[in-house]
Amino acid sequence: MTDRELEQKLAEAFTRAAPDDLEAILSRCGVQNGSVMEMKEMKSNANIIDVEVTEVKPRKKLGPWLAAACAALVLLGAGSGGLAYHQSRAVASVVSLDVNPSIELKVNRGERVISCTALNTEAAAVLFDMDGGADLKGTKLDVAVNAIVGALVREGYLDSVSSAILISVEDKDQDRAARLQAELVASVDGVLKTQAPGTSVLSQVLDADAPALEYMTYDSGLSAGKSALVRKVMEMNGTLALNSTTAFDQLAALSVEELNDLLEAGEKRIPIGKSAAAMAVETYAGTAALNAATTDVDPELDENPPHYEVELKTAFGDFDYTVDAFTGEVLSGPKDVLNIRADTPVTPDLAPTTPDDAGPAEKNVWQNPGNADVVGGTVISQDEAKQAALAHAGLAEGDVTDWKIERDWDDGQLEYEIEFWCGNTEYDYTIHGHTCAVLKHEVDHHREYGSGHHSDPYRGGSGTSGTASGDVGQEGAKAAALTHAGVAESQTSSMKVERDWDDGRLEYEVEFNVGRTEYEYTIDGATGAILEYERDDD
C-alpha cells in the first residue's frame, strides 16, 4: 500500500468513526461567554450592500479529552491495517552477503525483503537481471538469498574450489539473528552443494546496538558484515590496536576468500590482492596492453608459501602462473609469451635457429615456416589437428572411434593431444598447434583379452555388437569409486570418467573433487574392482 492510499484509508476511517453531532457537542459546552455574530445578506441598493452584523460570543474551547477521543477513533477506524503497514515497513534485520560483490538486504519482522542494495559495482552486475534488486522486494528472505547466490554462481564468483561466501545477520534481537543465521546457512549450503560444491559458507551474527570504531565507518562499498570480518583480521595481526585506517583499507579491498585464508593461516602480513597479482602476471607475460587477455586468480594464502595461482587466457592459448602473495614476484610461468616463436618445439631458450640445427621431431615443425613468427600467428583448429593425425596414421575418419582431443600448452608451445581407436589399435598423437606437424605419436596394439580373444569385446567393431555383458559401464565405475570414497555424487565436483584399454584389460579412469580433496581411481571395466586409487588433500 502506498503512502497516499494509506492516507485515504485513514481519512475514510476518521469519517466513519467521528459522527456529525455538532449540536450534541455544543449542548455539553455550557454557557457561552460571548455573543453570536450572525451574518445576514441584505438587498442591495445601487452599488451599496447593507449587512447587519450581530455579535457572536466565542464558544468554549473543546477540552483535550475530545481531541484524544478523536485520535483514538482514528486509530480504531484504521484497524490493524495501519499497524501491519507500519510493521511491514520497519527494518527488523539486515542481512549482508559478501564474496567480493557485497549485497545488503533489509528485512521486516515477517522475514520479507524491504530493500536489496548493491554496495559495489560487482554487486550491481550480479543484481542487473533482478532490476538492481527491486525484483526481490516483498519476497521471502530465503528465496531472495538463494536467487542472489545463484546469480553469484552464474557470474563466476564461486567457481573456484576455494571460494568463500560470508553471510552476516545484524539484529537487535540476537535470538532472532541466530535463528536466521542458521536457516540461511543451511539454505545456501544446499544450493551450493549442487552449483558450486567447493565453496565455503561463513557466517556471523552482529549486534545492531554494538558501537562501531570511528575509523571503521564503512562507506557505500562495504557491508557491516565484511567490516566486522576485516576487524577480526586486524585483531589477529595486531593492526587493530594501532587504529590503522591504512590497514583497514588494504584488507577491505580483499575478497572474503582471502580474508578467511589469512584467519585460517594466522598470517599477519597483508597480501597484494588479486588485482595486483593479475597485473604482475600480465606485465611479466607482456600482455598488459592486450584487451583480449584475461586472468582468473585463485588465492592460496593458507598454503606454504602463500601465493596466487593465475591463469592467463589469450587468443593463442592459456598459461598458468604462480605469484608470491606478498612480494608480487612471479614464481613460475612463461615470460614474454608474445615473443615465443611458433617454431619452438621445446622452450624459447632451446629453440633451434635453423632446420639444420633441429632434431628429427623439430625438423617436422619447420615444414611450415610461414607461421614461424610469434605465437599469436595462425592457430590451427581441432579438426585440422585431427586430420593431420589421421593422415599420418593412414586412416579415414570413418575407420576410427572414441575420439578425444584436448588443446594444451606445453613449455611455451601450443599443442593438441589426440587419442582414437581403430579396431583393437590405440593411437596417441601430439600435433603442433600452429603448423599441424606431428610432434609425437604412439601406436598400441591390444591383441588379447583373457584367453584367445583377438578383438576388444567391449568396443563396437569387427565381430561385436556393442557393450558386452562384462562391462560395468561408466555409471558402474563411477558408483564403485564413490562407494569406496564414502561420498555421494551430489557432494562431488569436476567429475570425469574415461574408458581406457591397458594391456588387454578394459579400465575406467574416474576423477572427482570433494571440497579441496581430489580423488583418482582406476576401475576394472569387467568387474568394477578398484585397481588403483589416490587421494590428494589440498
| Mean of all residue-level pLDDT scores | 74
Gap from first CA to last CA: 54 Å
Shape: globular
Task: Domain count, please report it.
Answer: 5
Number of helices: 14
Beta-strand share of residues: 25-35%
User: Looking across the biggest beta sheet, what order are the strands in?
Assistant: 5-4-3-6-7
> What profile does the largest beta sheet have?
5 strands, mixed
What share of the residues lie within helices?
A: 25-40%
Q: Rg from C-alpha positions?
A: 38 Å
Counting helices, strands and paired strands, the structural category is alpha+beta
Identify low-pLDDT runs. 24-62, 72-77, 212-218, 341-377, 448-469
- Find the count of extended strands (DSSP E, 2+ residues): 19
Tell me about this structure:
A five-stranded mixed sheet has the order 5-4-3-6-7, sandwiched between helices. A four-stranded antiparallel sheet has the order 8-9-10-11. The protein folds into five domains: 3-86, no CATH class; 91-242, no CATH class; 274-339; 348-445, Nuclear Transport Factor 2, Chain: A, CATH 3.10.450; 473-537, Roll (Nuclear Transport Factor 2, Chain: A), CATH 3.10.450. Mean pLDDT is 74; it is low at 24-62, 72-77, 212-218, 341-377 and 448-469. Helix 6 (141-154) runs parallel beside helix 7 (174-195). The chain contains 14 helices and 19 strands. It is 30% helix and 27% strand.
